[in-house]
Amino acid sequence: MSYYVQPLTGLASTVKWTNIPWGLTIYRTTYTPFSEEHFPQTIELIHTLLKANLDEWKDCHNDGPEQRAAKKTLLENYQPIVINDKGQFDGMALPDIRAHYATYLNTPEGERPYTNESMFVVIDDEGLAILAGTDATKLLASDDSVRDARRYWVRAVDSKLEYEGDEEDEDEEEEDDDDDDDEGWIKCSVYRLWSLWVDMDGSRPITAWRAWGAMDPNGPYCG
Known about the structure:
Layout: H1 2-5, H2 9-18, E1 25-28, H3 33-56, H4 65-76, E2 81-83, H5 86-89, H6 94-104, E3 119-123, H7 125-131, H8 136-140, H9 145-151, E4 153-158, H10 170-178, E5 185-189, H11 193-199, H12 208-212
Helix pairs in contact: 2-4
């Protein structure tokens, strides 16, 4: 789709002319009493900071009239896809979530919002504990946004584990099979979810950010 080639203007054009919203896909895998209290606020926090990241983001064309119009379209038509079913997803492991996501993506566009097919976010016990009770307005007004960007994160997960050109020996493959839950995800700053969306175009794994994270303290990767 064109919105992978031109993540801002391409996505905005697609949303505008099809009248179909777009959104980040978020899986909920915790259903404790604590999560019942804090999950709605956590979704709102992600919603607010993703839109703030989008609003400040600039591509190679900087922020001309076309880019500003595209941002307006996307900000007005954002609709997160929250996968939320205790009976099915409570405690679900990443390999099973990936399998579900692959099936979900077979739903025709038009019957669901546009989303990034290369990634999704998982809110589990650990992630919820980090974000619970956090006020988006205070984060956006923080005097130490670099520190806060590294402190507040979500589990961003690659929708696949194999990429063209991957070369792994048998020992590495066996190790991956034994520890699938530790593969194919990163801690993504809750401030930088749109930035990650842009870079997750299906050409490289999400774990590539681990190598780049130390070089870009303002990037998505924070651990």
